[in-house]
């Protein structure tokens, strides 16, 4: 029997307990032995909960119990999540997490402790909710040189955009529903402002390109400024507007950022709606591969966490080699220099525009490929209402 402890009994933590119980037999058959949750660590009381007998308030109980082989951290954030993860790894226990903030900010150090202690620190659920992406990148696609990875990495904002622009629901109501459905972060501004997607693209960039990217140095633009006129004109031109995280290898280095983009209706990502996420990977052998699935929510996220728990259970003392080097000066290119074509909503269409579109929502034009610096210089005094990169 493999003994586990869950830290944090919120949406994801309770989902993990539920999946381990519901699929107990098939999981045991796959692993070769049963997985038993011995403790759930949470500071709150759950007097009505069927698992109340497992709740402990003191993490030291888990830390000191030699029976516990795997610790599931679903507390979220830095703070105690970071402290308990470090202590669990130092106590020789593997840790599995859905905590993208912790992996993005402190993963380098935590993976180093795991390596030193001969245990695993696994985080499949930190990106794309239930979509398998970390394991495909580190295993199935490992023979490639990855040149680019991009995608819809936040379920809450994709859900809100779908509700707002396909169903006419106001942003606040759509956000409230996303919170009720368990998609949003505790502080949903992390979703809306692109901060959550930024943490995820940094983790993907770390894994694909092999060097840590600090999320605080990556520019993130969220969905707050997307106007109905932008969406109407983009659609008239044959595109959806999607919030994308993107990391790519170019001559000037690695570029990483989060921004709303125009995505052509011919591209699979334009059809990804609601809470679904999709991640596209470009490798020099595979070409392009796209991973699609539920990007947030209790059970989809728990699905990924439980798979990692099973992986630890089957690892039998071996380690999954995974990681990246510490930050390197000059690794990240200046995003303002990355060329793109741009979609500009503006009352005037300049002579140098490649194409333009106009209708009830006003007018917009498409620029040739140029950097943001060049774009700003070219736009000069034009009265620009909005400006988006076009995904090419
Ligand atoms: N708030 C996140 C999202 C949860 O909406 O994608 C999953 O990481």
Descriptive account of the structure:
The structure is a single chain. The protein has 392 residues and is an alpha/beta fold. It is 36% helix and 25% strand. The chain is built from 13 helices and 16 strands. The protein has helices spanning 11-22, 24-31, 59-64, 79-90, 100-117, 134-140, 155-167, 171-180, 189-192, 195-209, 228-236, 298-315, 372-379, and strands at 2-7, 35-41, 55-56, 68-73, 94-97, 121-122, 146-152, 219-220, 239-250, 253-264, 276-283, 287-294, 341-346, 355-359, 362-366, 384-390. The strands form two sheets. Strands 7, 8, 9, 10, 11, 12, 13, 14, 15 and 16 form a ten-stranded mixed beta sheet that branches. A six-stranded parallel beta sheet has the order 3-2-1-4-5-6, with helices on both faces. A hairpin with a 3-residue loop joins β11 (276-283) and β12 (287-294). The radius of gyration is 22 Å and the shape is globular. The mean pLDDT is 97. The protein binds L-homoserine (HSE). L-homoserine binds next to α7.
Q: Give every kind of bound small molecule, once each.
A: L-homoserine
Rg, Cα atoms, Å: 22 Å
Number of helices: 13
- The poorly predicted ranges are none
Proportion of beta-strand residues: 25-35%
Assign the structural class, choosing from mainly alpha, mainly beta, alpha/beta, alpha+beta, or little secondary structure: alpha/beta
Percent helix among the residues? 25-40%
- What's the total count of β strands? 16
* Secondary-structure element pattern, one letter each: EHHEEHEHEHEHEHHHHEHEEEEHEEEHE
Please tell me the overall pLDDT: 97
Gross morphology is: globular
* N-end to C-end Cα span: 51 Å
Largest sheet, strands/sense/barrel: 10 strands, mixed
């Amino acid at each position: 029997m493999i003994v586990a402890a869950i830290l944090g009994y919120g949406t994801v933590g309770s989902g993990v307990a539920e999946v381990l119980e519901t699929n107990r037999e098939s999981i045991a058959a796959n692993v070769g032995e049963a997985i038993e949750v011995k403790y759930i660590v949470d500071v709150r009381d759950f007097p009505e909960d069927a698992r109340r007998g497992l709740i402990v308030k003191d993490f030291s109980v888990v830390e000191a119990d030699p029976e516990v082989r795997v610790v599931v951290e679903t507390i979220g954030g830095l703070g105690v999540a970071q402290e308990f993860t470090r202590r669990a790894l130092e106590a020789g226990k593997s840790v599995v997490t859905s905590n993208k903030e912790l992996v993005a900010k402190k993963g380098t150090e935590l993976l180093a402790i795991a390596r030193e202690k001969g245990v695993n620190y696994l985080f499949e659920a930190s990106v794309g909710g239930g979509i398998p992406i970390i394991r495909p990148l580190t295993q199935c696609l490992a023979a490639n040189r990855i040149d680019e990875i991009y995608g819809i990495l936040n379920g809450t904002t994709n859900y809100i955009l779908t509700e707002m622009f396909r169903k006419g629901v106001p942003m606040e109501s759509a956000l409230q529903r996303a919170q009720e459905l368990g998609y949003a972060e505790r502080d949903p501004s992390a979703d809306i402002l692109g901060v959550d997607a930024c943490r995820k693209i940094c983790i993907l960039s770390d894994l694909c390109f092999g060097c840590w990217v600090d999320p605080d140095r990556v520019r993130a633009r969220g969905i707050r400024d997307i106007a109905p006129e932008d969406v109407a004109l983009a659609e008239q031109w044959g595109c959806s507007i999607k919030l994308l995280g993107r990391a790519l290898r170019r001559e000037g280095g690695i570029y990483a950022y989060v921004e709303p983009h125009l995505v052509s209706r011919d591209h699979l990502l334009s059809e990804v709606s609601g809470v679904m996420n999709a991640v596209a990977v470009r490798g020099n052998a595979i070409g392009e591969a796209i991973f699609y699935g539920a990007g947030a929510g209790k059970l989809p996220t728990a699905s990924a966490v439980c798979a990692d728990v099973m992986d630890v259970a089957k690892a039998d003392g071996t380690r999954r080699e995974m990681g990246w080097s510490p930050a390197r000066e000059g690794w990240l290119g200046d995003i303002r220099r990355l060329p793109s074509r741009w979609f500009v909503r503006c009352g005037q269409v300049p002579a140098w525009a490649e194409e333009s579109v106009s209708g009830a929502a006003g007018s917009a034009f498409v620029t040739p490929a140029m950097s943001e610096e060049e774009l700003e210089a070219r736009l000069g005094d034009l009265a620009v209402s909005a400006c988006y990169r076009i995904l090419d």
